[in-house]
Amino acid sequence: MEKRGEAQIDIELTEEVADGIYANLAIINHSNTEFVIDFVKVLPGTPKARVKSRIILTPQHAKRLLRALRENLARYEGSHGEIAEGDLPFHFGGPAGEA
Fold first, then answer.
1. Residue 23 C-alpha from the chain's centroid
2. What is the rounded CA–CA span in Å between residue 73 and residue 13?
3. For residue 2, how many other CB atoms are within 10 A of its CB?
4. Which pTM value belongs to this model?
5. Considering only CA atoms, which of 68, 65, 55, 66 is closest in space to residue 27?
6. What is the greatest pairwise CA distance in the chain?
């Protein structure tokens, strides 16, 4: 089946962004118009953590991201085995975020 009219996008990845930002916690909130994902780096024994990056998505893009993550996780586990889902080793109180 031929796909109609898919445009290609020229995506630029700067050196600074290519280095990436480490995060070991994602906190997800939403309103009726957007999803907000805060990526946080939590260090053991440190009572304070800082949001390293915030991504804001439309509900449609959040669903596409979920689908892409599911597909990539399935491929990863197909190559490397199932990923264990252990419990989070910390609790901050307040509303629970999903990681």
1. 9
2. 23
3. 4
4. 0.73
5. 55
6. 55
How far apart, in whole angstroms, are the C-alpha atoms of residue 15 and residue 26?
Answer: 24
Two tokens, residue 30: 């939403």
* Alpha-helix runs per DSSP H in 1-99: 15-18, 59-80
d(CA 96, CA 50): 17
Q: Which pLDDT score, from 0 to 100, does residue 94 have? A: 44
* Pairwise CA distance, residues 88 & 91, whole Å: 8
Residue 57: burial class (beta carbons within 10 Å; 0-12, 13-18, 19+): middle
Residue 65 CA to its chain's centroid (Å): 8
- 3-48: per-residue pLDDT in tens? 566 789 999 999 999 999 999 999 999 999 999 999 999 988 888 9
